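Sample intake sheet
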Amino acid sequence: MLIKLLFIMLLLLMVIHLFCALPAIIKGQLSRPLSHYLGRRLLIAVMLLGLVVIALLTGVIQPNPNPYTL
């Protein structure tokens, strides 16, 4: 359950950084450059990927062995 909560929190954080970068894209001027927000999103994506790999290796989540069957 903790892993799922971390997934959700990291995905929400990615969406928040996406919307924080929106004024920088529209107006072109902010106190922070656009690369700041893109770098944060990249860091969060790497953390999410690492969390998925760790969860798969520890057996917390299990992949579907055959995508065509339920």
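Comment: The two ends are 22 Å apart (CA to CA). The chain has two helices and no strands.
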